[in-house]
């Protein structure tokens, strides 16, 4: 691997470009109950079935009045009372106030609601206290102020979280049309790997990447399919790839560095693949491979043909992730997750970097010219006007799962920085 590798930014832009193209494919859709919609990607718009609010609504407990009369601090007899859930029987009579609760419809004729706390109530009359002013429309949300009947409130491609589910519920959507999750084949490679429930013999290790990648895929909105582990031979890899390539995305772990048994790249070359890059100036994760396998001429997927009209005979994005667990996880978040999001129909494809303050200097010098994504722990208990504080987790390289499990983010160290001072503002990627 020479110095002609792409920088992190170049690779990220290339992946984002492919993701934007892939987002043009329309995934198949299915209907789910609103209660099962969390994390799903909306396939059909959610529209307002009525004006919101459907009536002029009071935002306070208090008295609906005419602003001219209330502002003049007139004594106003209380003509009636409306709770949330009732409709006022009539318009507000002139020279009167109407007692009203939060969420209740404001009677016609009233143009403000004076908060309970700001009136003197004597018997059945109220008066705005002399120290307070009131403006027209204060404490009233007008009918239709939030949205109008027929307005599109959530577009296809929206990821359904709690707020979006609440909005859909408020518009009467008991079920939603969402995109089918992309099927992500996970192919781990390596003669050293044994299953989780086996005791490793000499020189062997348990396959931790398969369950890790399955968890990452599920969390990112994909449907993980773990394939049998492939041995480090060209034949084993060729056989495994034939199974894998009927998925919507293929993640291969291991076999991409420059070692003698790093067979992934040649195997992809034997298929009709386009390779976009075979390494990036990042650490960890430098040997990452990204390409697309043409789906023509591939054997049908065991028991599970690709759904008709799903993505059609489109090429299948493939990532050759470095085998070291932290490298696999970092490159998944940085590069595979955007492609997965695009194939899932999501309109949010970019990794979500946020700012934090480094609480300790990064003493580790990196190799110059590599953007580093180092496992770190971010503490979120900072006061509201401080950035969260983040510190690197001590590690023994990118195979150190003990360290990785203590971390909750990666700190980004730009390629032109050897180390960073305590107090520096840094970008982090939560994981
Ligand atoms: P490779 O990228 O195949 O050269 O692997 C790099 C390192 O990651 C080696 O130490 C492998 O043993 C380790 N590794 C590869 N695949 C896995 C896996 N599925 N689970 C855990 N470690 C792995
Ligand atoms: Mg290997």
Automatic annotation (TrEMBL):
Enzyme category, top tier: transferase
Enzyme Commission designation: 2.10.1.1
GO terms, biological process: Mo-molybdopterin cofactor biosynthetic process
Keywords from the named record: Magnesium, Metal-binding, Molybdenum, Molybdenum cofactor biosynthesis, Transferase
Domain MoaB/Mog: 185-342
Gene3D superfamilies for this protein: MoaB/Mog-like domain (3.40.980.10), MoeA, C-terminal, domain IV (2.40.340.10), Molybdopterin biosynthesis moea protein, domain 2 (3.90.105.10), Molybdopterin biosynthesis moea protein, domain 3 (2.170.190.11)
Co-factor requirement: Mg(2+)
Cellular component, GO annotation: cytosol
Pathway noted in the entry: Cofactor biosynthesis; molybdopterin biosynthesis
Single GO molecular function: molybdopterin molybdotransferase activity
Entries under CDD domains matching the protein: MoeA (cd00887)
Keyword RNA-binding: no
Substrates-to-products reaction catalysed: adenylyl-molybdopterin + molybdate = Mo-molybdopterin + AMP + H(+)
PANTHER family xrefs: GEPHYRIN (PTHR10192:SF5), MOLYBDOPTERIN BIOSYNTHESIS PROTEIN (PTHR10192)
Protein family according to the UniProt entry: Belongs to the MoeA family.
Function: Catalyzes the insertion of molybdate into adenylated molybdopterin with the concomitant release of AMP.
Protein name: Molybdopterin molybdenumtransferase
Organism: Telmatobacter sp. DSM 110680
